[in-house]
C-alpha cells in the first residue's frame, strides 16, 4: 500500500506495478516506461508524459488524468471520476 502526501514518479524503462489501493495525495506522474495500476488511485491526480504509458485493469482516478503519452485500459471499469480528463496522447480501450 502506498500512502502519504508525497508524489509518485515513474521514470526509466520497464514496468512498475501498483497493487492495492494507493491513498497518496500528491501527483502520480509517468515520465517514461509503464505504470501498471491494478487498483484505484484514490487521492492522486495522474499525469502521463510523452514517454510514459499507464496500464491497468481498473482505471479509477477520482482526481483526474492528463494524458500526453498512452493509456491502455484493459478492464471493465472505465470511470475516471470527478477530476479533469485531458487527452493529448493515445488511448487504447480494449479487453486484451
**Any idea what the shape is?**
globular
Mean pLDDT: 78
Q: Terminal Cα separation, in Å?
A: 26 Å
Classification by helices and strands: mainly beta
According to DSSP, the number of beta strands is: 8
What descriptive keywords fit this protein?
mainly beta
Q: What does this protein look like?
A:
The chain is mostly beta strands. The radius of gyration is 12 Å and the shape is globular. It is 0% helix and 50% strand. Strands 1, 2, 3, 4, 5, 6, 7 and 8 form an eight-stranded parallel sheet that branches.
List the helices and strands and how they pair.
Elements: E1 8-10, E2 15-18, E3 28-37, E4 46-58, E5 65-67, E6 70-77, E7 85-87, E8 90-93
Summarize the structure.
This protein is mainly beta.
Amino acid at each position: 500500500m502506498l500512502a502519504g502526501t508525497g508524489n509518485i514518479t515513474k521514470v526509466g524503462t520497464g514496468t512498475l506495478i501498483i497493487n492495492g489501493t494507493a491513498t497518496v495525495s500528491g501527483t502520480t506522474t509517468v515520465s517514461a516506461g509503464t505504470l501498471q495500476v491494478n487498483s484505484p488511485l484514490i487521492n492522486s491526480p495522474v499525469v502521463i508524459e510523452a514517454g510514459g504509458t499507464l496500464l491497468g485493469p481498473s482505471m479509477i482516478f477520482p482526481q483526474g488524468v492528463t494524458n500526453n503519452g498512452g493509456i491502455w485500459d484493459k478492464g471493465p471499469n472505465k470511470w475516471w471520476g470527478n477530476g479533469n480528463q485531458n487527452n493529448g496522447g493515445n488511448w487504447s480501450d480494449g479487453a486484451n
